[in-house]
Amino acid sequence: MSDMMNDQASQKKQLRREALARRNALDPDWRAEVAEALASQAQRIAVGSGTVVSGFWPMRSEMDVRPLMAVLAARGARIALPAILDRTTIVFREYRPDAPLVDMGFGTWGPDDGALVLDPEIMFVPLAAFDARGHRIGYGAGYYDRAIARLKARGLSPRLIGIAFDCQEVAGVPDEPHDERLPEMLTESGLRQISGFHAQAN
Q1: Which of 73, 106, 137, 174 has the fewest CB atoms below 10 angstroms from its CB?
Q2: pTM for this one?
């Protein structure tokens, strides 16, 4: 690994640590209120009957998108959650409220291997930190970057929406060629379009 790559990795690690510390310091009751309020943004996310939306089961102090997913499901969306297959790969399995969830590690849960694997058309992307250009810092494993790249390699273009609290924004993320930029960010302040991307249909 080059000195530049080492430096970028070190910067990302520091930014991740600082952003997560800010997120962890948020009042849990306030986070719960924000999660409920976030569901009101569903009107800005166009779904039809059968539209596949991938969310995630929140781990630790992550933004809870379950209320938002419930509203979208009520409007006809099919909800999927990430399932970790190995150290490099996640797939998106259909979530049904009456089906069991299994421990995926890292404090998150997902459908078991009996659930259908779906290709997300809209993807809520968790993250540790982000900047105004739409670059994100994940948790270091690269699962989402690889999953998005695989979908694009098959000719698919899911609508990518980063999910975070405002306090997770940083001045600049050291970006690398393989990093996937996010055209939109959803925080407690609302849905933000990132400049430099074509407008998404609402």
Answers
A1: 106
A2: 0.92
